[in-house]
Amino acid sequence: MLSSHGLLAALHITSNQDIQGFAGKISAAAGVVFSWTSYRVTRQLIRDCQPDVVHVHNFFPRLSPSVFYACRAEGIPTVLTLHNYRIVCPTAMLLHEGKVTERSLTEGPWWAFRQRVYRNSWAGTFFLCLMIWFHQRAGTWKHKVDRFIVLSEFGRERMKAAGIPAELMVVKPNFVDIPRQGDYPRAGLLFVGRLSAEKGIGVLLDAVAKLRGTASITERDVTILGGGPMANVVATAEVNALGPKSGSEVRQHMTTAVALVMPSIWYEGFPMVLVEAYACGLPIIASRIGALAELVEDGVTGLLSEPGNSDDLAAKMEWALNHPDEIRRMGEAARRRYESLYTPSRNLAQLTSIYEEAIANHREGPPRGD
């Protein structure tokens, strides 16, 4: 997007696929805390590219927070987009054993080591906890990053509770470029996403079973797109399970569904499927939890249900299927919400402003060292 609007952008992409063997995994794990290789490579890239600002989307596990020290050493301001809670929580999701937990915000990371939360690995979890602990103590997030982009006000409050300076955080949502779709006949409900417990698949299937028991819906009334660990469970349920689909196929389903169902039981960041649905004029039935409760306006762009409550979800699903005029108006409101907040032009203006703030903060701030 930046290049298409006359802003020169250079990408630096690393892959985790070449981490092989026991020795490779241990070496990579140790480098999670501070990778000197990444530090040297980043400094050289900066000298080669001479950027005005460095925008980091993910540094785990290969880059490590050393990239921010490299940028500081070269005098370049930095922006970090927080797509999850990795810098404060070893699970990255404020989730453990299928339940939301904010222990990392109140206790620090070391509770997670005892639980081996990272791939059930003592070593992997240890170095991840050490990374979080070390950079909190070293002041990395307070002194080496000029601006944090968070995806919602909810995420901003969680990060603030974890000690990230509020004045350095800016809320900027995700965006998509989807033109207004045609006015197609709509029928049935749609789920799009990973088929896993935290996404509320179990809650959704329970709600479907209850509606099927009262003959309120048919198998074709709920379409599920996606793959994941609960794919076999979904395949045996009384739903229209179609498996993973391409982006264009997903959008086709979005233009003909009545509503998108997002029954998550964890703190979603800012799901791309949400803004895609809004762009397609599709209202959302979402859990009243985390950022979803902020992003879906109850009764305006969709409906909110209590997280984990299949009875409430079933009631909202049945209402959506039985009130086409109201749901259509919600879909129109969803499209308007997209046009006002989630378009590329809106995003570009916000991002440019954030870069300018980061540059100004870097120039005006006190010396922070290498």
UniProtKB/TrEMBL annotation:
Gene3D superfamilies named in the record: Glycogen Phosphorylase B
Domain of life: Bacteria
Domain Glycosyl transferase family per the UniProt entry, residue ranges: 189-337
Residues in Glycosyltransferase subfamily 4-like N-terminal domain copies: 33-178
UniProt cross-references to InterPro entries, sorted A to Z: Glyco_trans_1, Glyco_trans_4-like_N, Glycosyltransferase_grp1
Protein name: Glycosyltransferase family 4 protein
GO MF term (any one): glycosyltransferase activity
UniProt source species: Ideonella alba
